[in-house]
Amino acid sequence: MIAWRLESHATLASTSDEAVRRAKAGEAAGLAILALRQSAGRGSRGRSWTAPAGNLNLSILLRPARAMAEAGLFSLICGIAVAEALEGLGARDLRLKWPNDVLLGEAKLAGILIDASAKQDRLEWLVAGIGVNLRAAPEIPGRATAALAAQGLVIPPETAAWAVLDRLALWLEAAPAQIRAAWLARGPAPGAPLQLARGAEVLRGRFAGLSEAGELLLRREDRIEAVNTGEILLGGA
To answer: What is the pTM of this model?
Structure first.
């Protein structure tokens, strides 16, 4: 099992940018970087990630012995680990939204950002950036957001970081089928109507599961389409 090396910083521009820099410099797997304040955090699809003091800003460096095509599994792994860690600290009503969000009810509680580099179609390194609204829920245009403080939970970032790392260490050892099953247990119901934004296009269909590589399977009329990028729009199809 991986031995974590947690570094805590009062302030960083971006924990993921720092972890990527260290990965390129040859840092070994197991580095975890925590920032109590983050001034230039990155979210998915080029968005910024606002990180008020008291929230979790954590990035983790891995060097998985997997094909680059399996990089999508790590969003699933991190989502499962975050949900389990927070539940262990008292959170409730958590769900997973493909590919990289943890929801509190129907509101975004946490986001995951994956950066990866490949060599000859194999992962050379992978950085998972994890942001959790522990104390405050930043506004995201068009999205409901939530913080665990609304459930009366006061969780220090360091406590949350170690809880996530403990669960993540277990899931990094799991087989892809176990990962998919655990994610599906917290994801949409089979056959649930979905709308998925992919660039300017909106795909409509019904949830048909996950592929072996962690892609979303969307049933559209008489066919099932594997989708490896996009954003599920909450509210049905």
So the answer is: 0.92
Whether 138 and 216 map to the same domain: the answer is no
- In this structure, the answer to whether residues 110 and 220 fall within a common structural domain is no
Domain co-membership, 163 together with 201: no
Each residue of 121-153: pLDDT tens digit? 999 999 999 999 999 998 888 789 999 998 899
Inter-residue long-range contacts of 149-154, CB under 8 Å, 24+ positions, other chains counted: 150/104, 151/90, 151/91, 151/92, 151/104, 153/89, 153/90, 153/91
- How far, in whole angstroms, is CA 55 from its chain's centroid? 15
The span from the CA of 225 to the CA of 176, in Å, is: 20
Closest residue by Cα to residue 83 from 160, 181, 140: 160
C-alpha–C-alpha distance, residues 141 and 133, integer Å: 16
Domain at 176, CATH number: 3.30.930.10
